[in-house]
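[SOLVED] Predicted holo structure with 2-acetamido-2-deoxy-beta-D-glucopyranose

Edit: marking solved, answer below. Original request kept for reference. I posted the sequence and ligand SMILES and asked for the 3D complex as C-alpha cells.
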Amino acid sequence: MLFAHYWFLTAIVLLFKSVVSEEFVPPNSWENKEFKKTIEISNSFTAENLELTIVNIDSEPVTQYFVPIPSDIVPMISMFTAAYMSEEAFIQCMIVPGVHQLDDGTEISYGVIQFESPVAPGEEIALLAKIHYALNGNPSPEEIGMDDTQSLALTVNRYPISPYVSKTSSVDISGAEDFMELTPADNDNEVGILLTNQFKYGPFHEVPAFKSSWANVSYPVDYPLITVTDLKRDIWVSHWAHTAEFQEYYEIVNEGARLKNGFNRVEFMKRVQRTEGKGGNFIGVLGLSLTENSTDAYVTDKVGKVSSVMREEDKLLVKPRFPVFGGWAYNFTVGWTNTLDDFLHISGTEQDSFIISLPVLNGPPDTIYRNAEVSVILPEGAEVLDVGSPLPFSNATVTREYSYFDLADGHAKLTFYYSNLISELGTGELVVKYRFNTSSLYQKALYISYYVFGGLMTFFVLVNLNLNIK
Ligand SMILES: *[C@@H]1O[C@H](CO)[C@@H](O)[C@H](O)[C@H]1NC(C)=O
Ligand SMILES: *[C@@H]1O[C@H](CO)[C@@H](O)[C@H](O)[C@H]1NC(C)=O
Ligand SMILES: *[C@@H]1O[C@H](CO)[C@@H](O)[C@H](O)[C@H]1NC(C)=O
Ligand SMILES: *[C@@H]1O[C@H](CO)[C@@H](O)[C@H](O)[C@H]1NC(C)=O
C-alpha cells in the first residue's frame, strides 16, 4: 500500500469549502454527556479541540454526529479530524453543505463525524475532534504606538451551540498570559473565569440544544501575525543532475495592529535596545525552515540579492530590508538545492517507476497561507502515474513546463492549489509516482551534445565558406 502510512489521506475527506445556503438541521439523535471545547490561541492560527462523551438517545442505530461551526469561518478551515479516544483510529469527517440559522441570527454550518459502524441506541462513545483554522483574532485596538503591546480579540460562544442537549459543557481559551472579556455577560454565571494562561466558561449543566451567547475576548500577543497571501513554490526534479531544486516566491503581510503614528527609526532603535530585540508585533527576522541537508540557499527581493541572511543548520534567518509592522508587506524569493536521494524512492515492483515525497511547505513557522501554489516539475519524458496530497487542495493540474535545452514535449508540471493552510500542517508530504525510463536520462545529454556539435558544424561550414571565398 503506497499511502498506508500517510494517515492524513484517510483521516480527512475533501472539505466542502463553499457554504450552500440550503437549510440543514441535524436530527436530534445524541446527548452530549460531556462537551469540552478548548480553543488554542498560542499560535497565530487557531485550533479547536473537542473532547466529547456522547450517548445515542435515538431509538435506532446512528452513524453520524454533527459538530457546529459558524458559517463565516468554514472557508478558513485548514483541517478537520476526529478520532476515537480509546484507540488510535481516525474517523472520517467532512463539512456538510447547507446552513442553519439560529434564533439570534447566527448562521451555523455543520461538520459531520461519520462512524464506520452504526452506534446502537443507548451506546456511549468518547471522541476527540480537532479543527484547525487559518484564522487569528483581530487586532483590538486596530492601531497601536511603536512601543505598545498588541492585543487581539476573538469571538467565541460561551456554550457549545450543539444541536444536542449537553449534560455538562465548558469552553476554554488557552495560550495567552492574560484575558479580558470585551462583551459583558447577561448574568454572573456566564462571566468567564481567568485561570493561569487560560480563560474558562462553565462548567454549565443541562445546556439546551442551540443555546448561544457570544463574547469577544481579548488577549495580548507580542509577536507579528505572519500571513503569506501568495506562495508560489516550484520543485524541479532532475535525475540528470541528481537534484531537487526548490524555488519559492512569497508575498507576506503582517496582519497585526497597524502603527498609530507611523514609523520612527530612532524610536524603533531605542525599543530594540531596551527589549534586546525581543517581542514586538513586527517581523525583524524571518526564520525559514529549509529541507534537511540542503545547499546553495539564496534570497532575493525586488531590490536584488538579500545579503542579511544567516544559515543556522536547516534554518535560514532572513532579515527583511525593513521591520515589517502591522499592515505592511514584504515580497521575496528563496531557493536551495538537495540531492535527489533525500526524497526519491525506487518502486520495488515496477520497472522504471519512482516515488518522490516532498514536503508541502517549508518557510516560516507559525504562519497562515491564504493561497499556495505548489508545483513539482518532473524530468523530461517522465509520465505521472499517481499523486497524493496529505492536505485537501482546491484543484490540481498537470501542465507542461519548458526550460532551456528541452526536447519538444517539455517537463510534466504538477500543480496543487491550496487555500487557507497553516504552517503546522506543511510537513505533510506530497507523493508523486512516475515512470521515467532511464534511457531518457541520456536523451538530454545527447540533445545537448548534438546541439553543441551542430554549432561546431555550422562554424566549420562558415569557415569553409570563407575559405572558398578567399
Ligand atoms: C465582537 O466584535 C465584532 C468585531 O469587532 C463585532 O462586530 C461584534 O458585534 C462583537 N460581538 C459582541 C457579542 O460584542
Ligand atoms: C543529513 O546529513 C546527515 C549527515 O551527513 C545524515 O546523517 C542525515 O541522514 C541526512 N539527512 C537526510 C534527510 O538525508
Ligand atoms: C508585493 O507584491 C504584491 C503583488 O504583486 C504587491 O501588491 C505589493 O505591493 C508588493 N509589496 C511590496 C512591499 O513590494
Ligand atoms: C485552481 O485554483 C486556483 C486558485 O483557486 C485558480 O487560480 C486556478 O485558476 C484554478 N485552476 C483550474 C484549472 O481550475
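OP edit: Residues 155, 183, 214, 216 surround 2-acetamido-2-deoxy-beta-D-glucopyranose (ligand 1) (CB under 6 Å). Thanks to everyone who chimed in.
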